[in-house]
Specification:
With about 325 residues, the chain is mainly beta. About 5% of the residues lie in helices and about 50% in strands. Strands 1, 2, 3, 4, 6, 9, 10 and 12 form an 8-stranded mixed sheet that branches. The radius of gyration is 21 Å and the shape is globular.
Length: about 325
């Protein structure tokens, strides 16, 4: 977890610019992984099958259906989809499966410009992250709440539809009053984002990367990875528009571009432009390409030179060579 003067990790921070979001021990990371086990309890995964293995159990920080006991106050909950294959759409519900509200403050480790209040769901492709703030002070002592996944998925290729009531993944139990007053807050302004101007976009070269499958192999622009050969070389300080294209109707690709976050300029499904979801309008480094989807991404290549990669973060796709190397030169 990284902090700075703005997001300082200290809800008692006396710096007027500090956000004072809920901080340790009320800043809690949750890591989700889908896993499959044999009859003796040994985890299984078919590394040789390009379809991979979809887990039928969801672990949270390594445990199946754990219980997290919390105080009656605000918590910052950091959600990470650590793969390998399953997508999630999480809801917070009570024992009667009534959906509860929370505040969504970040995606992929980047704070939004403003919090998304009164949210009732958060969707995470593989490797996507999302921070939410839950105010447990609204509930009586002894209340149980559940984080549930309502996104159906029966193949590694990607998710299907949302179905209630969903699968309970984590149980919260509100079992105590806070040991000190809750001075944390979620201000109306979080972190400013410098969006690209129209002139920057028009001046940026465009590259298209197509994520597809041929002859049973996962490829980018119909090629397997070659770590010894860069597929793109960019001069440090320049900017480009990358078009990420998934022409398939049968699978999804969460594409991870290393080095630098970007912003989504446009989203197209079956060739028709559609709205960019509000939680995807900030800085990101993982871009979910659903079936028949194309995304236009604006990227600045600043600060460092070196060798970097772009790959599908569905881990079996990555392991079967859906990756490429690209370089930044001086």
């Amino acid at each position: 977890l990284l902090f700075d003067d703005l997001d300082s990790g200290d809800e008692h921070d006396d710096n007027p610019a500090a956000l004072r979001l809920p901080s340790h021990p009320y800043d809690y990371p949750l890591l989700f992984q889908d896993k499959r086990f044999d009859a003796s309890g040994i985890q299984i995964f078919n590394q040789l099958d390009p379809e991979g293995t979809l887990g039928d159990k969801i672990t949270v920080n390594g445990k199946i259906e754990p219980v997290l006991r919390v105080a009656r106050r605000k918590y910052r909950i950091r959600l990470l989809n650590a793969g390998p294959s399953r997508f999630y759409e999480f809801y917070l519900v009570n024992a009667a499966n009534t959906v509860q509200k929370f505040i969504h403050i970040s995606n992929d480790g980047n704070l939004f410009t403003a919090p998304l209040r009164n949210r009732d769901r958060v969707r995470l492709g593989v490797a996507e992250r999302g921070d939410i703030v839950i105010d447990f002070s609204k509930y009586a002592l002894g209340t149980a709440l559940y984080l549930v996944n309502r996104l159906k998925q029966d193949k590694t290729r990607g998710p299907k539809n949302v179905v209630a009531p969903g699968v309970r993944v984590l149980k919260f139990v509100i079992d105590r009053e806070p040991s000190e007053p809750d001075v944390s807050r979620v201000p109306n302004t979080l972190r400013p984002i410098r969006m690209p101007t129209a002139d920057e976009i028009s001046a940026a070269p465009v590259r298209r990367w197509t994520f597809s499958r041929s002859n049973g192999l996962w490829k980018i622009n119909n090629r397997l990875v070659d770590v010894n050969s860069p597929r793109a070389t960019i001069t440090k300080g320049h900017a480009e528009v990358w078009e990420l294209n998934n022409p398939s109707g049968g699978w999804s690709h969460p594409v991870h571009i290393h080095f630098e976050e970007g912003v989504i300029l446009g989203k197209f499904v079956n060739g028709v432009q559609v709205p960019i979801p509000v939680h995807e309008r900030g800085r990101k480094d993982v871009y979910v390409l659903g079936p028949n989807t194309m995304l236009r991404i604006f990227l600045r290549f600043r600060d460092f030179t070196g060798k970097y990669v772009m790959h599908c973060h569905n881990m079996i796709h990555e392991d079967h060579a859906m990756m490429l190397r690209w370089d930044i030169k001086a």
